[in-house]
Amino acid sequence: MLDLTLDAGALTAQIVDIESVSGNEKVLADAVEEALRTLPHLTVDRSGDTVVARTSLGRAERVLIAGHLDTVPLAGNLPSRVEGDLLYGCGTSDMKAGVAVALRLAALLPAPNRDVTYVFYDCEEVEAERNGLNRVGRDHPEWLAADFAVLMEPTDGVIEGGCQGTLRAEITVRGKRAHSARSWFGVNAIHGIEPVLARLNAYQARLPMVDGLEYHEGLNAVGVHGGVAGNVIPDECVVVVNYRFAPDLSPEQAQDHVREVFDGFEVAFSDHASGARPGLTDPAAAAFVAAVGGTPRAKLGWTDVARFSELGIPAVNYGPGDPNLAHQQGEYVSLTKIAEGERAMLAWLG
Amino acid sequence: MLDLTLDAGALTAQIVDIESVSGNEKVLADAVEEALRTLPHLTVDRSGDTVVARTSLGRAERVLIAGHLDTVPLAGNLPSRVEGDLLYGCGTSDMKAGVAVALRLAALLPAPNRDVTYVFYDCEEVEAERNGLNRVGRDHPEWLAADFAVLMEPTDGVIEGGCQGTLRAEITVRGKRAHSARSWFGVNAIHGIEPVLARLNAYQARLPMVDGLEYHEGLNAVGVHGGVAGNVIPDECVVVVNYRFAPDLSPEQAQDHVREVFDGFEVAFSDHASGARPGLTDPAAAAFVAAVGGTPRAKLGWTDVARFSELGIPAVNYGPGDPNLAHQQGEYVSLTKIAEGERAMLAWLG
Questions:
Q1: What is the CATH number of the domain that holds A220?
Q2: Given B33, B49, B70, B125, which residue is catalytic?
Q3: Which of A309, B51, B95, B169 is least surrounded by CB atoms within 10 angstroms?
Q4: Residue range A259-273, pLDDT digits in tens
Q5: Quick count: other Cβ atoms within 10 Å of Cβ A35?
């Protein structure tokens, strides 16, 4: 049982210690649903392992506060532990600290100055088609109706505008099988990926300015597999690459770029997700920026602001975690930043 | 049920159509055992999926005729099919044609001029510790007692002396995990294998002369794997290499060579098997060469002649399959070569 009377830092630790690697969010989603159902001012809905809770106060404006419940695979970094001001553990920064702040707001604000929709969803860290927010947007779009959205992904307490897009592609090199004792009768497909890796190592990433914010792209191998048996020259080797592209490119333009980089190779695209331009000049976004303060910057990681952008809802990233620590073995979050985030959000909605 | 009254070519097809990828030899071993147990002149023993059958005629000399029952993984090449003189299918050449000839000898020779031990064994195509001949040599060495051995591995009907050794090593490159949207905080281990592949592509294999026969070495990647998740810079990538070394090197010298090639990288050795020098000057080997005829040449693939060599039994490779076709999708064997092999062996033992 999650205890929403704990301060947001202690609540983060409780949430982190419920392991929820993508696809395994059920126990945590159950705990979140159970905690929210004790709050009489909220209507609670559930779809799979996504939980949505709403106030219905008839306010002129409705805002949406969202966070994903899943994490990347563990790296020997659970259970959580506190050292001074830092809480260590898988998902502390990305993004259970944000989830904890949102749950605290749900508990502390029976009558916020705007109607609020809280969304806690599954499978953000994996292929787009498994994404819980995507599923709810398709199956229950009315649950997501809002004038403005704050996604509590890690931003180190700074408002981050827009996000970069992402796509994955498989670069396949083919060869010819042979017995490895007479390898000259075959063509080794693993040896054949050397030039693919050479192009990745030589790649110069763009740092374009978009709507006044600087983005930073990246093109990386995130997987490689090849091999038939220990005595066979392999006839196929696949390099999976991930391209993170700035929001001045459409997914189609990004695909063209990847095709160009790997010109001469067999390239097949799997999933992709559009980026989102910063859009901070939108009135609803500007009001949030004014209330929270600070200087907005570009969001480098892909986040579901792009999904809100597609639904026509202006959205920003704002959360207490440090984005540079996300997905790292030594991931942590500052307890001070969590408390500051909670205070800023309460000031905006209270 | 195998029909040992069929000619050796038709019997090969029967055997090929019983799928027996390494680890899955039971059905074929059962069929071989059942067929041999119908022959009253043989004593039949079994260990796991290895079947041993012996005459006991009190001859002055005992010879051993051996073949493995397993094949490499299928490649859409079953069931077998005949086109003209060629029988196509997984294992036709390596080495079910040899197995068929040995079974025919067992059926046709109730009173050979030498006592004969027939050995049909499992798991030759995988790690040395799973090898059925290895297991029988350890658990029942008396079953393998012999003055000379003929291993019916594919040699295209030519006697092949000795064999090359083989070893496998894992070359591990390590990096640092990070979110792929901020890849510059990590170190990509997959990108890091580029120089490993460059060394493999630049490698010049030796062609040394040993006891008058020319060998041909090879160093190849046979597997590669790396990757954590589609949005994580991977912190580890492993290239599995297979070194086939001429019999003038011991396994220890071969390991030293691999360490030297991958100097600066993390190298770990898994299994290895010694080569065997040709040894055709041994009297028992020379008698077989005189009976069968032809000009012996070097055996390039590793075979269990090395295992007989370690047991002190002179041994040669001699079989109807074409070694250049082994482990290839389009593997086949000549029906004429099978018949010729059967005739030569009958002439030697009849």
A1: 3.30.70.360
A2: B70
A3: A309
A4: 999 999 999 999 898
A5: 20
Nearest chain A CA: its distance from B347 CA (Å): 31
Task: Answer whether A327 sits within 8 Å of B240, measured CB to CB.
Answer: no
Among A81-85, A285-289, B256-260, whose mean pLDDT is lowest?
A285-289
- Residues of chain A positioned with their CB less than 8 A from the CB of B75: 177
Which of B75, B221, B324 lies closest to A190 in CB terms? B221
Closest Cα to residue B294, out of B332, B341, B238?
B341
Per residue in B103-156, pLDDT (tens digit) is: 999 999 999 999 999 999 999 999 888 999 999 999 999 999 998 999 999 999
Which letter does DSSP use for residue A263 in this model?
Answer: T
Give the ipTM of the model, two decimals please: 0.72
Determine the Cα angle at B87 with ends B82 and B91, to 5°: 135
Given A188, A228, A328, which is nearest B177 (Cβ)? A328
Mean local confidence (pLDDT), A192-200? 98
Exposure letters A161-197 (e unless 16+ CB within 10 A, then b): bbbbbbbbbebbbebebbbbbbbebbbbbbbbbbbbb
As a residue count, chain A comes to 350
Which chain A residues are closer than 8 Å to B127 by Cβ? Answer: 230
Q: A24: how many CB neighbours lie within 10 A of its CB?
A: 16
CB atoms closer than 10 angstroms to residue A91: 33
Domain of residue A109, CATH code: 3.40.630.10
Retrieve residue A10's tokens: 């202690």
Cα–Cα distance, A234 to B221 (Å, whole number): 8
Contacts of B188 in chain A (CB under 8 A): 200, 220-221
Q: Which of A33, A49, A70, A235 is catalytic?
A: A70
**In this structure, what DSSP letter does residue B93 have?**
I
Task: Let me know whether B214 and B154 are in one domain.
Answer: no
Shortest distance between the Cα of B31 and any Cα of chain A, in A, equals: 26
- Report pLDDT for A290: 83
DSSP code of residue A320: S
Nearest to A93 by CA among A325, A300, A299: A325
**Whether residue B77 is found in the same domain as residue B147:** yes
Contacts of A229 in chain B (CB under 8 A): 72-73, 125-126, 222, 327
Per this entry, what is the length of chain B?
Answer: 350
pLDDT in tens, B29-64: 999 999 999 999 999 999 999 999 999 999 999 999
Q: What's B3's DSSP letter?
A: -
In a domain, A1, yes or no: no
